[in-house]
Amino acid sequence: MKTETRWVKSILWAVAAVFGVVSSYAVAGLVGGSIPSNRDWRAPAEGVHIFVESNGVHTGIIVPKVAAGVDWREVARAEDLRDPRYGAFDHVAFGWGEKSFYLETPTWADVKLRTVVGAAFGSTRTLMHVDHLPRPRAGDGAREIVVTPAQYRRLAAYIRASFRDGGARYRGYAGYDAFYEANGRYSAVRTCNAWTGDALRFAGVKVGWWTPFPVTVMGWF
Asked: In angstroms, how far is CA 23 from the centroid of its own chain?
């Protein structure tokens, strides 16, 4: 009986410890996301129109294919798509994430606990996810931001540096998207949403100091 009692207490202690870690992580993320960086940033009256998108779990950045001296057509190539006709769209969306999570979970029904846990503990196997699309309408899961040409070029430089030169390419979920090997280490600290925040912060846009969750990105726009 005493052995069973100790076993139950051990399980309860383990559950409480896990809950404590998860709760602390959530609180830290929300606090970090509420601390502004680039606090003096103001959107210019004119400039390059970009978008920040979210599907409720993952965030990304949508930009024109050609703007302010930046041309993405040699990076996001139409021939990398299942259906190259989508390459005619004039905007492209960039997201960064863990390779297994991206390639093994085309829908949320495919998500496995081992994939989530493995990514959270850290992985250097990362990908850029690139979607070709028309200019989005603000409000359809996307927020519009105006940046100066100089800020946009800094943003573009950050995104470009996330691609691994000479890395492999993978066809995407549909006809209009593709994956590319990326630089960087994914973890619970540096998530796909943290990458989005880092890119905007590098460009000079006002965003949270640490943005591990979608709300910590989207809440600023």
From this structure: 22
pTM of the model: 0.85
Q: What are 59's strand-pairing partners?
A: 54
The DSSP code for 148 is -
Which of helix, strand or coil describes residue 115? helix
């927020």: which residue's tokens?
143
Radius of gyration of the chain from its Cα atoms, rounded to whole angstroms:
19
Rounded to whole angstroms, the Cα distance separating 144 from 139 reads 8
Q: Which of 168, 183, 172 is nearest to 78 (CA)?
A: 172
The three-class DSSP label of residue 142 is strand
| Cα-based angle 182, 152, 162 (whole degrees, multiple of 5) | 5
Give the CA count within 13 Å in the CB-facing half-sphere of 146. 6
**Separation CA 82–CA 41 (nearest Å):** 40
Q: Return the SS3 of 70.
A: strand
Q: 14 vs 9, 112, 120, CA distance in Å? A: 9, 21, 19
Q: What is the pLDDT along the chain (221 residues), one digit of tens a residue?
A: 555 555 554 454 545 444 445 567 667 778 888 899 999 999 999 999 999 999 888 899 999 999 999 999 999 999 999 999 999 999 999 999 998 878 876 554 555 555 455 555 567 899 999 999 999 987 768 999 999 999 999 999 999 999 999 999 999 999 999 999 999 999 988 999 999 999 999 999 999 999 999 999 999 99
Closest CA to 179 of 126, 127, 114: 127
